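Re-run with default settings, no changes from the original entry. Doing this only to confirm the output is reproducible before filing.
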Amino acid sequence: MVVSDTGVRVEPGSFRDPGNRVFHRHGEVFRGLDERSARDWRALAASDFFRDLLATGRVCGTEELLPTPVDLPWAAVLRHERIPFVSHPYEWSYAMLRDAALLHLEILAAALAAGFTLKDGSAYNLQWRGATPVFIDVGSFEPARDGEPWAGYRQFCQTLLYPLLLQAHLGLDFQPWLRARVDGIEPDQMRRLFAGARRLCAGVLTHVHLHGAMQARNAGASTTDVRAQLRAAGYSRELALATVRGLTKLVRRLDHRPEDSHWVDYQRTCAYSVPDRQAKEQFVDRAVAATGGGLALDLGANDGRYARIAARHADQVVAVEQDPAVVDALYRALRDEGEQRILPLVMDLADPSPGGGWRGVERAGFADRSRADAVLALALVHHLALGRNVPLADVLDQLVGLGTAGGTLVVEFVHPEDPMARRLLDNKPDGLFPDYRRDTFEALLAARGRLVRRVELPSGTRTLYQVTVGG
């Protein structure tokens, strides 16, 4: 991450297109454009289709700074709206990835119809306002030229279509595949997975095997040669539009719903009594209300019960849950409600998203993106400490590190005699967790912040704490 003498902090993930670069200054998000990109932008800004995308929120809010700041080395500078929380495709559920793919195709179709195209097709060009996808790569638009294919097709396949095919047809969670490679799933990998009768699965023959064969055939040809061949073959914008419509139809057909898991029905099967739940809801509501807005994290969010309570007061809530099926169900519910303040993400908090891509900073790790005003860790500590063998001190360090100094931590300690804790302990050797005690937990908590409130739930085996971090 580079900070210049002018206070510009260059976005580490914005370097692949030399014509424009995203940077931050004084807490705002900007994009610098070179001469060619500036011309493309001004043509785009004058078009009706782009104004419609902005007005409907499908593209992030964007305006040009006029006059161009003289202290910046760009032909034009755009100011973008700030996305509440940056996430990565391997943190999304199936339905989230599918909706992001559909928005990408919708925008591309509108662009082609108006004489423009998109240089890229990456899933990383999309982000979220709550449960609503938004396209952020305004620098990807450029005038379309007849005879030229969509340059972003391969990226779209590798980061959007192939992960959807993988889960829809084979039932494999796509998140580990995308996390492993920033550029997505290669056609060669897909061909091995979809051999034999699997070649006949919807979308596979055309977009996996034929795509791979075309790449192999043109492996030694230059981009200019390929474009010349396409022009000679009569490739046109109308054919490009037909391809986009075909992809859209395919993605709509891939409406896979992950199989239910133990955690999908956790709120009904867990050990909470009605009085426990009511007391917990009141505690969370009061604690988050005291933060005065900002960002809240709900770690181990399950069905989003407490994320919804936090959203009464926070400007944005990121609801993190390990189980992709649970996140998918929560996302679909939030999407249907039109929720703009809760973003659900798939993540194992014992193995949170690290930094990735070029030099490990192109895609920032979860801890680097999370500076929350309120962190909720409800019914979580025992899963990490007893279920995953993480020392209590390390669990609390992680929770504190995800928040801001002076922020609020709401944490629940499940006593060793609680039924859920006993169930976890039954699967461990005797005496493995001698420090898993309430007094030890409270001492560790006191070393990391100032206790504001403590409430024992009516069951008598769980305690809630509200702590001001570092206070």
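The mean pLDDT is 91. The chain is about 40% helix and 20% strand.
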